[in-house]
Every structure is written in C-alpha cells, then in structure tokens.
Amino acid sequence: MADLQPSHQADQPLNKLQQGGLPNGKEAPGDGLQARGQWASKAEFLLAVAGQIIGLGNVWRFPYLCYKNGGGVFFVPYLLFLVLCGIPLFLLETSLGQYTSLGGVSAWRTICPLFGGLGYASQVMILHGCVYYIVILAWALFYLCYSFQAELPWSHCNNTWNTNACVLFDNFNQSSNGSSLPENATSPVMEFWEREVLRLSDTLDELGPVSWKLVLCLAAVWLVCYFCVWKGVKSTGKVVYLTATFPYVMLFVLLVRGATLPGAMQGIIYYLKPNHTRLADPQ
Known about the structure:
disulfide bond, sodium, transmembrane helix, transport, SNS_sf
C-alpha cells in the first residue's frame, strides 16, 4: 500500500490538499498545512506496519482470551471481527493518511468538518491505549533490571520484602511428607510482584509510599517512546528496523521455549480441540 500512487484525476485534489485547500476549492482552516515528512523508502513503511502486528497482545492477551473462551473456537469470532472491522478500518486509516498527508484530526476534518469528532475520538483511544500499555512496559523494564543477578530475587525467600508466609512450593512438596502448607502461604514470585513491584498497601485507605524504582522505569519508557517519534517519520523510519524485526525473533524464541515446557502438549491439545459450546456464550 505504500507504493500506491493516486491516479491523474486524483492528483489535483491531492495537490490542493497539500497546498492548504480542499478538493471543492475551499480553503482549509489556518494559514496552510505544515509540511510533513515522508518515509525514506517503502521498506520503512512496510516495517512500520509489520511492527504494529506484533505486540503485548500477541504474547499476553491473545493466549489468555483463547484459554478463557474455549481454545481454538475463539478464532471464529476473532476472524469474523477481523474481516468485518479490523481490516476495513486499517485500510481506511492508511488510505486516508496517504491521500491527505495529515494527522488523525486534520485528515477527517479536511474530508468533512463534521467528521472532526472521529479524529478526536481516535486520539483519545490511542491515548488510553498508550497509558495502559506503557505501565506494562514499565513493569517489564523493572523485571529486566532485576534479572541481571546470579540468583533471581523471585526464586527465593531471603529478600528484605519477603514475609514469614513466603514458601518455596517446589521444596515444600519434596520435604513436606504429607504435612499441610502454612496458613496464608505465598510464593516468592507473588511476594516480589505485590511487595516489591507494586508495593501494595494493606488497605484501600492507605496510599502507600511512592515506588521510585517504578517511577524511573516509567520515565525511561516514556523517554524511549519520545525519542522514537520526536522527528516524525525520519526517526521512526530508522527505529522500525529494530522494533519491527526484534519482536518476531523473540516471538519465535518464546514459541520454542513454550513448546519445551512441561504441559505444553496438553495446552496444544486444548487449543486444537475447541469447546464449541462457548460460541453460544455472549461473554
């Protein structure tokens, strides 16, 4: 789609848009349109689009939804909405952006002033998505920093944040001799998540202290995002060579790793033998 060129008949309205006017001869609001950068090559555009395909949803949310909604039968509504909603909206936004060379709000307003609300609504949805996923990326960076240790802190109960209820379940199963678990027993993984990463307070009335480590991780992630887009497509076009290819490599690594874990075959069988009764569940 990046190499599609408007026909000769469409050149005039396109040129008019780029000069600050509308196809019907009216002038666009403002003193003219700001010159916008262009992709240096078709490869950069294709990589930018390919990079949008792989994300946290593929590794985290999609498998969870498949497990929750009957395994492979989840593909039926997924493909249905992909064909009816996802692909048409993707083609619409890509074509509209290529034709007008404007931002999300200005592009819709240029086509029709009444459609300006669509642009604002899409920007609000993008903002909500950014705030949601940026926190998850901050958590991932937090775990990454703690991973550079000989012994992972969530693999034992000898940390400062661990409580007396911390139990290594693997060791307990091997040496328990039929005895029951201690009351309110928790794993070191859960205590690291709740007491070191989130630092949850005991009650809702207590705000708790600020986790400055998590604040630094959040600021670092926002800073990386800023430098990825601060010069528009000039900087984004160079970043996508890494951000669009690296996720595919890591996804393959996770596939190989997941296939070698205990219980992998049971998961594959559950996925290949879908529960068709879930199709009648409106949830």
